[in-house]
């Protein structure tokens, strides 16, 4: 038996002065890095060919490994889609955590979250973030995805409500406004794959500027007086 | 032969004083009404079960007719999806035509189009409008859908540019702004099926109000001075 052992790993395991625990930590990190590569490769394949048209063989081929190697990191294609979804939404959840204790008006905290949201949707995980829910997933997976989306939706509504309270956001319907903001950002995943003339960060910044400014003429120009529908529209919002 | 003729239709065809051309027009109108019913039934089935999981048998069953009857009005399931798509986008195209010659600031014309856009997406055809492109369609059908979508996108950009020129819309990047507006509206199809607490018209009105007002505090309140990121964001937009 001894003669068949891999000499490299044998020498590694007896290296003097190196804790076997450290080696174990390194292996864990190595596994984490490789798992991450599998998830990114999956995201790229899903983007390119769609979820249903992508097989684990395709992902393995792209990574130049065998399918069993892929199975060492994830249990199924469905789990891969979920991991791609999570990789995207985790950027938004982290942004919520980051701004939670900032002592700035709620609109600034909201804008910081929206920037990360926009960047996440423009990332390689964007398509999975907005499309995962519409694939044929197990009921448990669907529920999990819905609950994570709902958490983000309610986080945005909460920041809008806080903004209305601290005066940094004008009076509005938090639910409708959250739908409008998230919709505009989610839609990035639909057009960004074909039009990459701006970086994800630039797009996110541009969208936050649009959300902030709206379509109204800037400043107190005479054009404001020429716009009766706005008042009517605002009335409808207050309902 | 004569004895086997349907007496009702025979008496109809010889009714004195009634032009056979009028009867022909009536038949055409009748066919149009029935074709419309087939398309609406298809839209409802696609909404409920998804395009791939819906068969022409399902649509026939919903209409209580046979599948050949459905084939009398459309040639394929793909054509039905296309007709549902067209039924939605035609509402937006009609809005563009309606406002073309109005002598009002471009923002008002844009808002009118966006209201119709929002109502169309909240209608039974909304799901087909935003999802048609992502089904397995023939290349010709895909191109047709893309070109109609592109026409609407460019129509919105044009109204934004005109608004910037006539001063009714503040300086902005027309392409990004059009993407943000259309994205927010398209996303209605994703949440409206589950949350019908407002009518389509109310949602459209609410969204136009959000687009107009943005997130900025209304009026010249002290909070405006507390918002440095807006200026930075606006700078990014001007690129």
Note down, in words, how this protein is organized.
Chain A has helices spanning 7-13, 20-49, 56-63, 67-73, 77-99, 106-122, 126-131, 139-166, 174-186, 188-191, 200-213, 228-237. Chain A is built from twelve helices and no strands. At the A-B interface, helix 6, helix 8, helix 9, helix 10 and helix 11 of A face helix 6, helix 8, helix 9, helix 10 and helix 11 of B.
Secondary structure: elements and pairs:
2 copies of one chain form a homodimer.
Chain A: H1 7-13, H2 20-49, H3 56-63, H4 67-73, H5 77-99, H6 106-122, H7 126-131, H8 139-166, H9 174-186, H10 188-191, H11 200-213, H12 228-237
Features:
homodimer; 239 residues; mainly alpha; 70% helix; globular; disordered N terminus; disordered C terminus
Question: What's the assembly state of these chains?
Answer: homodimer
Strand content of chain A: under 5%
| Unreliable residue runs of chain A | 1-12, 220-239
The number of distinct helices of chain A, counting runs of at least 4 residues, comes to 12
Largest interface: A-B, 57 and 57 residues
Coarse shape of chain A: globular
Instruction: Give a short account of the largest sheet of chain A.
Output: none
Structural class of chain A: mainly alpha
Radius of gyration of chain A: 24 Å
What is the averaged pLDDT score of chain A? 83
Distance between the termini of chain A: 79 Å
The strand count of chain A comes to 0
